[in-house]
Amino acid sequence: MGATRRKFSREFKLEAVRQLEAGRRLAEMARELGVHATVLRRWKDQVVVDAQTAFPGNGRMRDPEEELRRLQRENAQLRAERDFLKKTAAFFARESQ
Question: For a tag site, which of 16, 35, 42, 90 has the least CB within 10 Å?
């Protein structure tokens, strides 16, 4: 049988992120807390994106309008990156001829 999934409270995660931001080493904290380093990194990334809505838990979802705005900003950024890459590819294609 597989291992059961462990659950950590919002306060536990926030305290772990606070300690990381205070200068504690990621690998050291991961060993100490018994979690994988990527889990700690993901927790930190969630707090950086939006500390107020990080770790919503059961039943506490993000505001749909806020999520829509975030996705629209991300979409605009991705379109700009795509357009830049298209222009760059066209430039190099002309230059190689």
Answer: 90
Helices (H), 22-63: 26-33, 37-49
pTM for the predicted model, two decimal places: 0.55
Residue 40: Cβ within 10 Å count? 21
- Per-residue pLDDT of the chain (97 residues), as tens digits, is 567 878 888 889 999 999 999 999 999 999 999 999 999 999 998 888 877 777 777 655 667 888 888 899 999 999 999 999 999 999 999 887 7
Please say whether the dihedral angle defined by the alpha carbons of residues 92, 93, 96 and 97, taken in this order, is positive or negative.
Answer: negative
**Cα distances (angstroms) measured from residue 78 to each of 10, 27, 60, 85:** 31, 32, 28, 11
